[in-house]
Every structure is written in C-alpha cells, then in structure tokens.
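BUG: 3D viewer hangs when loading the predicted structure for this chain

Environment: internal workstation, default settings.
Expected: structure renders.
Actual: progress bar stalls at 90%.

Input used:
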Amino acid sequence: MELRQIQYFIEVAKREHVSEAAFSLHVAQSAVSRQISNLEVDLGVKLFVRDGRNVKLTHIGRKFLEHMQQAMQVIENAKLEIAESLDPERGTVRIGFPSSLAASTLPTAISAFRELHPDVKFELHQGSYRFLINSVAEGKIDLALIGPVPDGNKSIQGHVLFEEDIVALLPTDHSLADKPSIRLNQLKDDSFVVFPEGFILRDLVVKACEGVGFQPIVSFEGDDIDAIKGLVAAGLGVTLIPEITLIDSLPRKTVKLPISEPTVTRTVGVITPSERDLLPTEKLFYQFIKDYYHTN
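Structure tokens produced before the viewer hung:
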C-alpha cells in the first residue's frame, strides 16, 4: 500500500467522482483509476461501487476511509511537528472557544500573544462545551478556552486561568433594577431566559437556583450569549450570565447586578489533550496564556 494510493482513495471518496478527483489532484483520470484498482487488489475487497457517473463507498470502503483519514492526520501531525521544531514561530494553533469567551477573553489573549509572535497563525473553532471537550480529546483542535474547567475526563487535562463572577442581567423596568445587588432567591418568581438543554451555562443557572431552594421558570431559550442578552433586553425574562460577557456590550434597556447571596462563580481555563504532547507552536501559546493570566 502506497501513500499516493491512500491520497487518491480519500479524494475519490470525498468527491464520489473519479474525474473530479483527478482534476483536483492534477493527474490523469486513468492514473487515479489505476491506483484505486491496485489498492483494491492489494486489500482483496471492493472499496467503491458505480452509481451512474459517480462512485459510492462500499460498507468496507467507509470503514477503510475512517482509518485512512486518521492515518493521514498522524502523518500531517508528524510533518507539522518537524516543521515547527525548526521554527515554532511560524506554526498554527487550532483553538476552540465558547460564545461566552468570544468577545473579550480570546481576542485579548491572542492579540497580546501576537505582539510577541506575529507570524504564528490561528484557526478558530467556536462550539458548545461538549463539542470543545470532544474536539480536543479527538485531536480535531489543539486546545480550547473553556468555562468551567472540566474534571474527571481522562482524555483531557485542564488548567484554571481565573475565576469569574456570574451576575444577574435584568430589564431596566424590573422592580429590582435600581438595587445595588440582589439575593438570588429574590428572582424565584421571575421568568428566566437560558440556554437550551445540554448547555453548561444552563446547568450553572439551574444549579445555582436550586441551591437556594427554587427551580427557575424558563420562559425562553437562546443558542448564544447575544441571543440571551437580546431576549432580556426585550423584557422577556431575567438571566444569570458570566460578567465578562458584559464588559464591552451591556445591552440597552438592561442592568447587571452582582449577586450578594450566594456568590455564584465559574472557573475559566484552557484544556489540552492528555494522550498526546502539544506541538512546539501550541506549547508556545499554551505557556503564554498561563503566564498572561497569572500576571494580569
């Protein structure tokens, strides 16, 4: 089995068309067909079946594709590691982040880092809490900023960068809007705007409310921080929200209030895979971000 055969196979599988794959690879269609045929002979199985002008993977072909994509990723990682070992200042960091850290935390850290390392490139991937954990564990991204920092997952390791307050966000016409702070149980009769089921910030809100003896009444759900803030601004409910999401963008017709009882917080940190070492450029950024939040 040759590397070229694997590359041709993956391209044909992706495009489901031999001539389109050949065009993309800048080789003759006959060369692609020949290499696929040789590969099938070597393996002793059919990887594709004809479907009109197209080709479709067989059941065993789909399984083979999954393994070959993983193998190619290992090869790419090896090539990257060699290249970055020679010059870690020119590598790429694939970093994930949730919407709650998109407005301030992530841009601030990357901006400060690039002042020192201007040639390092970034691939940014926004996603939910579970998406970020799984993506780091599976090697789809290198590391992720996340809050709260998870524990108990053997595939990743977390480092806490800082702890932040969770505050209440209320419409300006709310009866408590002119108070300097509130007790959480004062919101027990209010309608809440929260993230959908499965989002970690929804779990945080529910757990905090249950801790003072009530189940929050959910009136509306929003898929991201801006949607949550917009629904509160429209007077459709109240919410609990990380204070950092309001630093530069407190919506009109809303007020943020600290929660005096109980104090509600979350950790914010960075997660990395526990089953592989970071590449040199990734290590450079990882060490920088730990030092940055230790001193700022």
